[in-house]
Design brief:
The complex is a heterodimer of chains A (167) and B (280). Chain A has seven helices and no strands. Chain A has 167 residues and is mainly alpha-helical. Chain B is built from five helices and twelve strands. Classes of the chains: A mainly alpha (167), B alpha+beta (280).
Chain lengths: 167, 280
């Protein structure tokens, strides 16, 4: 339930706020990937796939790009489990939300950077498929990934403060 | 049987992945702007309601700019009325021709519509209008505001319409240089939302910076002579067979609020004729 709220909030923030920001030109962060990132590690891969496909489709319908976000997000959702297994033992998979606190700083950031890069590369490659502008593309993938990761970092810091206050 | 079940659970998630990815890619690559279902675009009901809400909140902050734009337009219209009245009185004095002119029906209807969603940061941008089938808007109609042309309607539901703006390559828009009547096609290069490229202009055409570019009227989308932009730079193309002009767009795409949808009255007849001509 908690996770559902995150998906809804991030999608709304993306569509109503971020897509209206103009000062960075074509470089915009993709927020909704954070909700996918922090799903519990032992969640069935079927569910993760369906969630990522649905998230992408909602994004597509609302921004008139049928299939674009859905394809990129499904790819990220599908590679999430194999990626997690690189860093975590099967026995350690738990129903806790994935976060810096739980995974440790190094492991979390390795996981986040790779997943965001996969998603953004797929997204921007597919976007420019029929209209190729190599330099914009080569610049867009790292810069947008960096912006997304900065956002994730900010969210992680806020969430950690929450935990500290509670305990 | 047990083996089969085990095999299926193992490969099942991969099958689901392949299926979903297949659906997404199918949608992406089969999407023909005019044939796709309205369901998958921002012209559907839920998206329309969401963006109406967004406009209600965000529109408040642009009231001042909207007002200024309306004032400017008002002024221009007043000037035009003055000029037309002068002209009318001058012509009615001598002959009765002016009366005939007055009765000639306009070729184009304008349908005002509010922009409720507008993107400029993507490679393929889109606009959503509050106004749809019930207001007389149909796919294929041109969209313009007081400054110039904005785009063309792609999908319509009862109350909302999705628009393909100029900033959506590889869609091309037919236009011409006002001075020389030389035509070309306008396409966005995905870089800067203030500029677009006008291609396929013959190399012998005289061009200078600041020349006006208007619509060519070669289709049933826009009437001839609507403002597109002005020439910012020009360059000879790769093989020197045509010129490439960098056009400063007249419309500010990051500050759209109210637009007009253009309904060409002879549209059906025109399309019918064109179809027949192509079939022969």
């Amino acid at each position: 339930m908690n996770h559902l709220i995150w998906f809804v909030l991030l999608l709304l923030a993306q569509l109503l706020l971020i897509d209206n920001l103009h000062f960075l030109g074509v470089f915009i962060p993709v927020l909704y990937i954070y909700a996918l990132l922090r799903l519990p590690s032992n969640l069935s891969s079927y569910v993760v796939l369906l969630i990522s496909f649905a998230t992408g489709m909602i994004m597509d319908v609302l921004s008139n790009t049928p299939g674009l976000h859905a394809a990129a997000t499904t790819l990220a959702g599908g590679l999430r489990y194999p990626l997690l297994r690189l860093f975590i033992l099967k026995e350690d998979m738990s129903s806790r939300t994935i976060s810096v606190d739980w995974m440790g700083r190094t492991v979390f950031w390795q996981y986040a950077v790779i997943l965001v890069l996969i998603h953004h590369s797929a997204l921007f490659l597919l976007e420019s498929f029929s209209f190729f502008n190599l330099w914009t593309l080569l610049l867009k993938i790292p810069v947008c990934s960096l912006l997304t990761l900065l956002f994730i970092m900010a969210m992680e810091l806020i969430n950690r403060d929450d935990h500290a206050r509670k305990s | 049987m047990q083996n089969f079940v085990r095999f299926f659970t193992k490969i099942g998630s991969f099958l689901l992945f392949a299926l979903l990815e297949g659906v997404a890619l199918y949608l992406l690559f089969s999407s023909n702007n005019f044939q796709q279902s309205v369901f998958f675009t921002s012209a559907n009901k839920v998206a329309g309601a969401l963006y109406t809400f967004e406009e209600a909140v965000a529109g408040f902050f642009y009231l001042k700019e909207d007002n200024e734009a309306l004032l400017r337009e008002n002024n221009d219209l007043h000037k035009q009325i003055d000029w037309l009245e002068n002209e009318l009185s001058r012509l009615t004095d001598t002959t009765g021709i002016a009366l005939m002119r007055k009765e000639k029906p306009g070729e184009f209807d304008l349908i005002p519509a509010k922009v409720i969603h507008n993107s400029v940061t993507k490679l393929r941008n889109s606009i959503t209008l509050k106004g749809g089938k019930l207001d007389g808007i149909e796919p294929g109609m041109g969209v313009a505001n007081a400054d110039g042309i904005v785009g063309v309607v792609s999908h319509v539901s009862n109350h909302y319409a999705a628009v393909i703006p100029l900033l959506c390559p590889p869609n091309r828009f037919s236009c011409k240089l006002k001075n020389s009547n030389a035509s070309g096609s306008l396409v966005w290069d995905g870089e800067d939302r203030r500029f677009a490229l006008m291609e396929e202009v013959p190399p012998y055409v005289p061009v200078s910076k600041g020349d006006t570019v208007v619509t060519s009227g070669f289709s049933s989308i826009f009437p001839e002579g609507l403002m597109v932009g002005t020439v910012e730079e020009y360059d000879v193309g790769d093989d020197a067979n045509y010129l490439i002009l960098k056009i400063r767009l007249a419309v500010r795409f990051d500050a759209l609020s109210t637009v007009r949808v253009i309904r060409f009255k002879g549209r059906n007849e025109y399309n019918q004729l064109k179809k027949e001509a192509e079939e022969e």
